[in-house]
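Example S7 (structure tokens).
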């Protein structure tokens, strides 16, 4: 096996980085959830860090230091489950796992989950840059090569389509709120209101506007670039490659990358796969 392919292993047919050990992935089903656990679900590069910071700010406004945002449940080794067990207070647990790999105890308890969706074209471009800049991921020859990998679901966490459709299919088995990156960009206060009502937290207009200010792209990027960035920030919990996360934070960057043919092929795939999806009505495509 080449050093490159050593960076990825396949579990349940899905590519994972070595950050997720096969032993941990195998043992996830023994995970004991709690009724008040909140899952923060996303396909990679959909705005996970943004949403996590919104949640942190939202809880801190009402009950400072009462919630912990953990690293993604699938990152780590066997000790991970013990580490999560030792957390007192409410846990917000991020994950990129497909629905069928989520520990069944979350489902049995009907825990709440928030799933953030981003347009697949911008997601692909963002993931392309993440691969390029991240030494823990295989080297990518070109945008063209990466595009084919993305379209065929051969990137970390597999197919964008399968991920979303799997979570949509089971949307009523847990209590799931779907959010949209583009809608958040357009009207963040509206999305924050949606989140707070889903979580049963009352916020004043002033509190909402404070949260929006603190979680703007510029504010979050500057905070991460500061030498002494807040050690409690969710960015620290979620990633070791903090500076790779805040690239552009825009909608429509894909237009700089997609050739007309690539655009047509993805449109065809989208139509074929998402035609019967209810979520597709809300995805800005
Ligand atoms: P780009 O690469 O297009 O800039 P994730 O957190 O799931 O890894 O997603 C990362 C993407 O979300 C990056 O997209 C990043 O810039 C964007 N992002 C992070 N914080 C954001 C914010 N506060 N507002 C808008 N986009 C943000």
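Recovered sequence:
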């Amino acid at each position: 096996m080449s050093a490159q392919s050593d960076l990825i292993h396949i579990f349940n047919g899905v590519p994972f980085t070595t950050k997720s050990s096969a032993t941990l992935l195998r043992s996830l089903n023994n995970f004991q959830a709690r009724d008040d656990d909140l899952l923060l679900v996303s396909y990679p590069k959909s705005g996970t860090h943004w949403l996590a910071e919104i949640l942190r700010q939202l809880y801190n406004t009402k009950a400072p230091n009462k919630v912990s945002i953990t690293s993604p449940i699938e990152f780590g080794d066997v000790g991970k489950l013990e580490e999560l067990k030792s957390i007192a207070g409410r846990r917000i647990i991020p994950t990129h796992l497909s629905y069928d790999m989520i520990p069944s105890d979350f489902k049995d308890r009907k825990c709440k989950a928030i799933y953030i969706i981003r347009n697949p074209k911008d997601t692909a471009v963002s993931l392309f840059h993440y691969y390029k800049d991240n030494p823990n991921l295989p080297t990518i020859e070109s945008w063209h090569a990466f595009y084919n990998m993305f379209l065929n679901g051969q990137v970390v966490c597999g197919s964008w389509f399968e991920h979303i459709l799997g979570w949509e299919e089971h949307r009523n088995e847990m209590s799931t709120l779907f959010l949209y990156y583009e809608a958040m960009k357009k009207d963040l206060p509206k999305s924050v209101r949606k989140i707070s009502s889903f979580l049963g937290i009352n916020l004043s207009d002033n509190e909402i506007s404070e949260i929006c200010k603190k979680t703007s792209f510029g504010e979050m990027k500057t905070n991460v670039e500061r030498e002494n960035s807040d050690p409690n920030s969710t960015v620290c919990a979620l990633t070791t490659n903090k500076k790779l996360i805040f690239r552009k934070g825009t909608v429509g960057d894909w237009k700089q990358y997609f050739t007309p043919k690539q655009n047509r092929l993805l449109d065809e795939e989208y139509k074929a796969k998402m035609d019967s999806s209810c979520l597709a009505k809300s995805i800005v495509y």
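Notes on this example. The CA atoms of residues 208 and 271 lie 36 Å apart.
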